[in-house]
Amino acid sequence: MKTVRIATRKSALALWQAEYVRERLEHFHPKLSVELVKMTSKGDRILDAPLAKIGGKGLFVKELENSLLAGRADIAVHSMKDVPMSFPDGLGLATICPRENPLDAFVSNHYNHLEELPEGAVVGTSSLRRQCQLLKLRPDLTIRFLRGNVNTRLAKLDNGEYDAIILAAAGLIRLDMADRIRNCLTTEQCLPAAGQGAVGIEIRSDDKTIRQLLEPLHDQDTADRVLAERAMNRRLNGGCQVPIACYSELQGDELFIRGLVGQPDGRLLLEAQTHCHRSEGETAGIQVAEKLLQKGADRILNELMHE
Ligand SMILES: NCc1[nH]cc(CCC(=O)O)c1CC(=O)O
Q1: Domain 4-98+198-218's class?
Q2: pLDDT in tens, 81-102
Q3: Which ligand 1 atom is at minimum distance from the Cα of 149?
Q4: Among 74, 82, 104, 163, which one carries the catalytic annotation?
Q5: What is the pTM of this model?
Q6: Atom of ligand 1 nearest to the CA of 166
Q7: At what angle do helices 12-28 and 150-158 cross, to 10 degrees?
Q8: C-beta 77 within 6 A of ligand 1
Q9: Ligand 1 within 6 A of CB of 196
């Protein structure tokens, strides 16, 4: 077997995820040689605009996909949260790895909880999903633009530009900065993004050798959850740039799915849920989306598209 080449972005988190996949591959196949092919994505280059405004889905994955299609790499490692709902011809998702903590983390140098923040405090996030849920709980807060990789965001917090920031707990834990987490927002406070905390691996659909090598890295519990969450997002046409949240949990073979669409100002949050056998997650995810649409989700989402 030749060398397996992993396409990855150069951010610390992307590199951690690629190294993780390399380590797992080498663990299961000790004779295999694995190398990283590092590249910069559009989402990494343009840091001064909200993701929603630089437009297009898949800002973080297009370059990686092109390298797969051109045969410069064999697998691409992604945060499932950033993976678009559909794949280019010839590519597909082969593997979903075990999920890390899926919650959003409250990070601050002065306050222990969201509730402790003083009136009018400044909270950093550029996610409309986080913004709408935070404003629902605390309409007095000022939400201020914050983008960049995890280290950049923490540096801006430490500069005193924000009273607190919200980041995915998974990123902090993976980068060995769990000590920055004051607490995790509960799913009642802030429902996570579809796929948050899970790493996915994309390959050329016809590459049977690679597919087989990746099999032991797959986690079916995570996959059943994440595919249901993504099915809801897909039905609503949403990526991680829109105020949509979806989270599911397994209890035995029963999958519980919750979805949310919010008005960015937090004055209107629509919620829906269902449960099903774990093998029916994608259908049930679509049902949650349809319940949200019946409640008026399309009005919120259309308004955002025409802004
Ligand atoms: N949108 C950027 C992004 N994509 C994945 C993660 C975190 C790790 C994960 O969800 O797996 C982050 C950073 C963040 O939201 O704080």
Answers
A1: alpha beta
A2: 988 888 999 999 999 999 999 9
A3: 13
A4: 82
A5: 0.93
A6: 16
A7: 140
A8: no
A9: yes
Ligand 1 geometric centre to CA of 11 (Å): 11
Confirm whether 44 is a catalytic residue. no
ipTM of predicted assembly, 2 dp: 0.94
Expressed in angstroms, the distance from the first to the final Cα of the chain is 51
CATH 3.40.50.300 is the classification of domain 236-305: no
Model confidence over 26-72: pLDDT tens digits? 999 999 999 999 998 766 666 666 555 555 556 678 889 999 999 99
How remote is the CA of residue 114 from the centroid of ligand 1, in Å? 20
- Topology of 104-184 in CATH? D-Maltodextrin-Binding Protein; domain 2 (3.40.190)
Cβ-in-10-Å burial (0-12, 13-18, 19+) of 165 comes to buried
The pLDDT value recorded for residue 177 is 98
Overall residue count recorded for the chain in this entry: 307
pLDDT digits (tens, 9 = 90+) for 103-113: 999 999 999 99
**Cβ proximity of 137 and 121 under 8 Å:** no
> What are the start and end residues of each CATH 3.40.190.10 domain in the chain?
4-98+198-218, 104-184
| Residue whose pair of structure tokens reads 């800002």 in the numeric block | 59
